[in-house]
């Protein structure tokens, strides 16, 4: 593909019935010439099309088919629904994602999903043309095989409903011979008949075979695209700037949550945790930062919470990769942990749209059994001293506030975890009473209310006022401490002077003491007793003045009688 430096009007028009995309594995790189504007626009539209696929998670197959059709019919995607637009946008976005390992994996999965729905929606003629063009299946079985196939399939107990559709006449054109390595899942599910080194696969199951082939090819293509990206960064950095702009587009937050203010990501998650996380998530985040590891229950609980807060997969993956690789290494992280993150985001396995765990589920769930576990609700499983320490150190409450939270927790017998958490929210948010103490809570609800509180203009003014007052109080406290330190220094100097005089001569008094104060040379009192008497003589802040020169000062007499 050649990219023109000059700007020109896009040549990619809305798709017509004739010009609509075809089923493709995108084996051949397009040779079109496009402008920089078209280059960016096509890549950006492909990225947005991929993000819309998240709407399919948690739906039935019939619902997914209808949703996918609605996405493709969206007018904004018309430029990439043409043959040229589909090919060009695929290659441009593949090049943009190639440099990032996680984006590359997501790209492959999304393209396989797109192909699957398009193949299912294609007509019989379109499917046949695709099969013949790519030559993935052997020639159709001959007549002798045709006569035996039905009995063989029944003998193998293949769970294929199409057998009953034809009765005794098995349609020759509906079965294909495929290398068994291409369809191990179909064989395992007894949806294909294994005959030697080939498998007999019905037409409606060929899509599973093609999905496997496409995923393998795209994974190889990503390595080639990554090398091309490196070359472009040296020879044509301007192209790389456009590619980076394509993948920098912000992701849309979950529709279930309306978050006011800034968006949470890997770079600001610490600030969000300190300001707006409930105690359970604060403790998990703190444990992750300190131990660089989380047990399974903690990982699931925290990842689903971050997903609900609007933190994208790439950001969550970066957070956990940065911490976990410090203890388990890159290889083990990719093999054992990365899949779980993608699974929780609905991009692996059954692709379910998992919701963040509720307070009730965490309270009733299993409590941590070892010191390296931190999942669940801390109000439910922590003892008083441990909980009080967490409220003071982690949640930054005062001891008095921590005691009040604990009193709410144990009020009336049992443990009222949700009301206690609501009281903690009250203290941490300037007396905000957004929560009903009797209503069930959710960690995500806590987060959303906290962000709305901090984003409110009146709250911002109040916070600025409180911050100013805190700074003034801090400055006054520092001044007071400096004054006390100065007085302590003067007091220490005075005591040192008295010690030196007492040890040097018992017949003469230090010049700083009144002349009428006399110490008997035969006194048997200890020097410590003498110092205590002097302290009693000169109270408080008057010591410096009372222990001045003799001029203008009244004498103070003290007689110390000698013991016989």
Q: Residue ranges: pLDDT <50 for 5 or more in a row?
A: 6-10, 14-18, 163-169, 249-260, 505-564
**What proportion of the residues is helical, as a percent range?**
55-70%
Radius of gyration: 38 Å
Structural class: mainly alpha
Strand content: under 5%
Q: How many strands appear in the DSSP assignment?
A: 5
Tally of separate helices: 23
The CATH architecture category of the largest domain equals Orthogonal Bundle
Q: If strands are numbered along the chain, what order do they take across the biggest sheet?
A: 3-5-4
Describe this protein with a few key phrases:
564 residues; DNA Cyclobutane Dipyrimidine Photolyase, subunit A, domain 3; 3 domains; three-stranded antiparallel sheet; 5 strands; 58% helix
Task: Describe, in plain words, how this protein is organized in 3D.
- With 564 residues, this protein is mainly α.
- The protein folds into three domains: 2-128 and 220-247, no CATH class; 135-212, no CATH class; 267-458, DNA Cyclobutane Dipyrimidine Photolyase, subunit A, domain 3 (Orthogonal Bundle).
- The protein is 58% helix and 4% strand.
- It is built from 23 helices and five strands.
- The protein has a three-stranded antiparallel sheet with strand order 3-5-4.
- A hairpin with a 2-residue loop joins β4 (192-195) and β5 (198-202).
- α13 packs across α14 (313-344).
- It starts with a strand and ends in an 18-residue tail after the last helix.
- Residues 6-10, 14-18, 163-169, 249-260 and 505-564 have low confidence and may be disordered.
